[in-house]
């Protein structure tokens, strides 16, 4: 019997760790929003049932407010969730946000890009890591020498090659291939 209990704890531990791995970087409010949807729970009524202001829970669900320990314990108990799950999600979310701040410091030299290259968005608002495929392809399709060289400096050869989207339907296919050959000595 003891072996069975320990095996169950081990299996549960593995499942929880796998779930945390999947949810790393997700705001606990997004997780709650999904849980409420699955369980068909109205957040306002739930907030009142655990002695919390509906506005507080709403702000957490929308990602505008961080989860705190006392509230997370009340929510976990009421929903039958593993104790510490929501605070663990909050910590991983905070880590991801901090890393995101660090990344913003390490971005390409924006002064090297013409505003016409990113006519459909503000270049300062681009997350160069999350949208690298878009940025790389846009610059290789329409960029001048200075812009292409800056992207190569920032991302490096391997990242550029692995994020290419070459399609024969693109009117810029030949331009992309020329830039790859000229600047990276790569035949696509």
Number of helices: 10
Biggest sheet details: none
Envelope shape: elongated
CATH architecture of the largest domain: Orthogonal Bundle
Order of helices and strands: HHHHHHHHHH
Tell me the domain tally: 2
Work out the strand percent: under 5%
Determine the oligomeric state from the structure: single chain
Total beta-strand segments: 0
> Which class of secondary structure composition applies to the elements?
mainly alpha
The chain-level mean pLDDT equals 85
**Rg over alpha carbons:** 23 Å
Helix content range of the residues, please? 55-70%
End-to-end distance:
62 Å
Please name the CATH topology of the largest domain: 434 Repressor (Amino-terminal Domain)
Please identify the top-level CATH class of the largest domain: Mainly Alpha
CATH superfamily of the largest domain: lambda repressor-like DNA-binding domains
Stretches where pLDDT falls below 50 for ≥5 residues?
A: 1-7
Summarize the structure.
The chain has 188 residues and is mainly α. The protein has helices spanning 2-23, 28-39, 43-49, 54-61, 69-79, 85-105, 132-142, 145-155, 157-162, 173-184.
Description:
The chain is mainly α. It has two domains: 2-104, lambda repressor-like DNA-binding domains (434 Repressor (Amino-terminal Domain), Orthogonal Bundle); 110-184, no CATH class. It contains ten helices and no strands. The chain has helices at residues 2-23, 28-39, 43-49, 54-61, 69-79, 85-105, 132-142, 145-155, 157-162, 173-184. It is elongated. The model is unreliable at 1-7 (pLDDT under 50).
